[in-house]
Design brief:
This protein has two domains: 3-72, YjbJ (Protein Yjbj, Chain: A, Orthogonal Bundle), CATH 1.10.1470.10; 79-149, YjbJ (Protein Yjbj, Chain: A), CATH 1.10.1470. Helix content is 77%, strand content 0%. The protein contains eight helices and no strands. Helix 1 packs across helix 7. The relative contact order is 0.12.
């Protein structure tokens, strides 16, 4: 991954970095500000690793994350259905997660992995917590919608 790609993924990846390297603080991430060389330097400082080791580890983890993200965002037969639901859920998502902006929600386009990444970045959630939060909220909204669309029994 080159430096421009790293900077482009910065917001989405902040929570992931904290999960991978638990010694990183919010202040460290603010200092890094999306700059690859800064990130390498902060990890070196916190962990005492050589630059080569940090770059190898960082690039390897980023590549695995990218591969997982591409695999999980591949279109499925239900993609059109999900796209329609996402348009309905966007307003609800702003209520659930007030730190997410309309621009954030527009940019992610309902891609669950990207929403989860935003939750990690904006709220400092671990990946597992962000996934749980996403599934809980979206699942509950779908159940509520099914209940309101149900035909009353005579």
């Amino acid at each position: 991954m080159n430096k421009d790609e790293f900077e482009g993924k910065w917001k989405q990846m902040q929570g992931q970095f904290k999960e991978w390297w638990g010694k990183l603080t919010d202040d460290d991430l603010k200092q890094v500000g999306g700059k690859y060389d800064q990130m390498v330097g902060v990890i070196q400082e916190k962990y005492g690793y050589t630059r080569e080791r940090v770059e190898k580890e960082l690039n390897g983890r980023m590549a695995k994350f990218e591969a997982h993200q591409q695999k999980s965002t591949a279109p499925t037969p239900d993609q059109d259905i999900w796209d329609g639901k996402w348009k309905q859920l966007r307003g609800q998502a702003r209520e659930w997660w007030g730190k997410l902006t309309d621009d954030d929600l527009e940019r992610v386009g309902g891609q669950s992995e990207q929403v989860i990444g935003l939750l990690q970045a904006k709220y400092g959630y671990t990946r597992a917590h962000a996934e749980e939060e996403f599934k809980k909220r979206v699942g509950a909204a779908e159940i509520d919608k099914a209940d309101t669309n149900a035909v009353p029994m005579p």
